[in-house]
Amino acid sequence: MLGAIANARFKTGMFKSEKWVLVVTDQRLLGARLTDELAKSIAEQARAQGGASGSGFFGQLGAQLKPSFAVGQRYCAMAPEAILAETPGNWALLPGQVGSITVERKSRPGGEDGPDFDFVKITIEAAGGKGTYETDDDRPGQREVQALLARTFGSVVR
User: Fold this and answer.
1) Average pLDDT in the 8-13 region?
2) 3-state helix, strand, coil in the chain (%, to 5)
3) Bridge-partner residues for 8, per DSSP?
4) What is the number of structural domains in the chain?
5) Given pLDDT bands bounded at 50, 70 and 90, which one contains residue 59?
6) Phi/psi at 89 (nearest 5 deg)?
7) The domain spanning residue 147 has which CATH number?
8) What are the φ/ψ torsions at residue 156 (nearest 5 degrees)?
C-alpha cells in the first residue's frame, strides 16, 4: 500500500454522491465504497481505540472527528483482496487499463460572504469508462495526489 485518498466522492445524481476511498498500491488502484454503516463503524472503532489507549473524553472525540485519517489508516492496513471483497461494487484498475488520470485543484463558492471551498478533482479514464471523484477539501493537495498516483501509473497522471 502506498497511500489512500480517503475522502473521494462520486456524483450519482444532481444532489447525491457516494463516498469512496481510492487506495493506491504499487501495482494497482483500488476503489472502496464507504457506506454510511461502514463509516459509522470506523468512527466507533476510532473512538474505542482512543479510550483503550487512555485518552479521555476529548481524546476519544478527537479520534472520532478525524474520520478521513482513520479511514485512510484502515485501508492502508488491509490486504487488497479484503478491500475488494468488503463492499459489492469495489473495483481495481491496473496501469494497462488506464488511459489517463487528471488531477486538478478546484474552487467552489462558499456561499454568502463565506470563503471559497477548495477541493481536488480526480478524473480517471479507463478501458471501462470515465469516472470523476472530488475530495471534501484540498487535503491531500493536488501535487500530493498526483505524486501518489504517479508512483503506480507514471506518465498517464497529469
Assistant:
1) 95
2) 40, 35, 25
3) 20, 135
4) 1
5) low
6) 95, -10
7) 2.30.29.30
8) -75, -10
d(CA 114, CA 88): 38
The count of C-alpha atoms lying within 13 angstroms of the C-alpha of 96, restricted to the half-sphere facing its C-beta, is 0
- Residue 35: domain span: 3-156
Distance CA 58, CA 37 (A): 24
Place of cell 463509516: 39
Grid cell in block for residue 78: 488491509
CA–CA separation, 17 vs 35, rounded Å?
Answer: 11
Distance (Å, whole) CA 73 – CA 4: 8
CA distance 143 to 103: 8
Query: Quick one: cell of 131?
Result: 469516472
82 pLDDT higher than 60: yes
**Stated pTM of the model:** 0.85
The letter for the amino acid at 66 is K
